[in-house]
Amino acid sequence: MSGKSLGKTVLGWFVVQEDEEHEVTSDELIAKYGQADMAAAPPPVQLEDGLALPAQGGPIDFAAVYRAAQITDEEQTNVERASGLLQTLPSETPKEVRRQIVEASLRAFGLPVDGIIEAAAQEIQALESYIRLGERDTQNTLAEGNKRLQELTDQMALVKRAMEEKVMAQQSLARMANDQKLKVQVVLEFFGQEAVAKVVKESPKLVEPK
User: Fold this and answer.
1) Please, is 200 exposed, middle or buried when counting C-beta atoms within 10 Å of its C-beta (0-12, 13-18, 19+)?
2) N- to C-terminal Cα distance for the chain?
3) Tens of pLDDT, residue by residue, the chain (210 residues)
4) What Å distances lie between residue 109 and 70, 75, 103, 138, CA to CA?
5) DSSP classification of residue 8
């Protein structure tokens, strides 16, 4: 199937791997997960409260996810056994032959095939609900982040305005002080440069300009 954008999409009970046409940027991911209606649909199954999300980049405790969806350890083990049997069969073995071999092996161990199918479908539901849980948590983080960014933007605008006002005030101060200096300078010019230099040199209150 043609690529759309991101990794995997759940279609019914099956997960279809999609091709990726381009490398997804962080801005595109933020925009995707920031959509308000992204997690609006109810999850397939309700997970128990308190189920933790993995640390950033950390592994997922899938057993805990399944238990939170009321999937027993025995049911999880049976699905794992079926998965293990599939992995031991050569890939070139026809699908129908593999199915017969796996079903016969499971029955030989007294494992219910229908029960394994049901448990596997439950696990798919649990994983989809876990994805939705992560989406909601991500959306909350993005909402808080956008709020904080707006606050910082507003603060930056206030700081910038204060800086601009201070610069304008300094320019006004310098202009008025220079106008006053010109008025005072008339007095110094009246007495002459030599007289001014002599007083400046002898006075402990004055500093010679450099």
Assistant:
1) middle
2) 80
3) 444 444 445 556 666 555 555 666 767 767 776 665 655 567 788 998 889 998 887 899 999 999 999 999 999 999 999 998 888 888 888 888 888 888 888 888 888 899 999 999 999 999 999 998 988 888 888 889 999 999 999 999 999 999 999 999 999 999 999 999 999 999 999 999 999 999 998 999 988 777
4) 24, 14, 10, 43
5) E
Cβ–Cβ < 8 Å for 33, 138: yes
Query: Which positions ≥6 away from 199 have C-beta within 8 Å?
Result: 206
Main-chain dihedrals φ then ψ at residue 109, nearest 5 degrees = -90, 5
β-pair partners for 126:
none
CA 132/CA 126 separation, integer angstroms: 10
Give the start-to-end residue ranges of the domains of the chain.
34-165
Measured from the Cβ of residue 21, the count of other Cβ atoms closer than 10 Å reads 10
Residue 68: HSE in the Cβ half-sphere, 13 Å Cα cutoff: 21
Token reading at 172: 């006004």
Q: How many CB atoms lie within 10 A of CB 48?
A: 11
Q: What pTM does this model have?
A: 0.67
Distances (CA, A) of 175 to 150, 167, 169, 182: 37, 12, 10, 11
Amino acid at position 118, single letter: E
